[in-house]
Amino acid sequence: MAYATPLSRRSLLAISAAAAAGTATGAAASLAPVNPDAELLRLEREHDALYTRIDKHNRRLVELDEAGFEADHDACCDVEFAMQDIPAQTWAGVIAKARIAVEYAERHEHRVLDDMIPSLIEDILRISNVTGKRYLPPSERQGA
Predict the structure, then answer these.
(1) DSSP secondary structure string, 92-119?
(2) Where are the domains of the chain?
(3) What is the dihedral of CA 122, 124, 125, 130, to 10 degrees?
(4) Can you tell me the mean pLDDT for 37-56?
(5) Does the pTM of the predicted model rise above 0.70?
């Protein structure tokens, strides 16, 4: 029958230090800041990939079948609407939304993302911690 050898004081200290370091590392990892715009940034990367495939097809660099092109286009639109509905919390989130909004503001005759520009304005005001000027009809003004 084998007997376990007793651990030396040095071995016990080494084990304790390793355990403490592992706990500290795990605690530090759990305290790592989470980007409040992580979902917006993920959607931006997804949109970039879809947009690149659609653009290559439009420039005849890649030939997609009709179903593949339509699926990419529909997915791209879904991502755009999802991004429009998520309030940005950081400037990185605002930039992600603005990269999509600029195309609709400049190039599209059919403005399907009508709420993107107001959404960006609200994000900018919120992140800047300022309020926008809103016209209030006389009937809604205080003291009226």
Answers:
(1) HHHHHHHHHHHHHHHT-SS-TTTTHHHH
(2) 38-127
(3) 170
(4) 92
(5) no
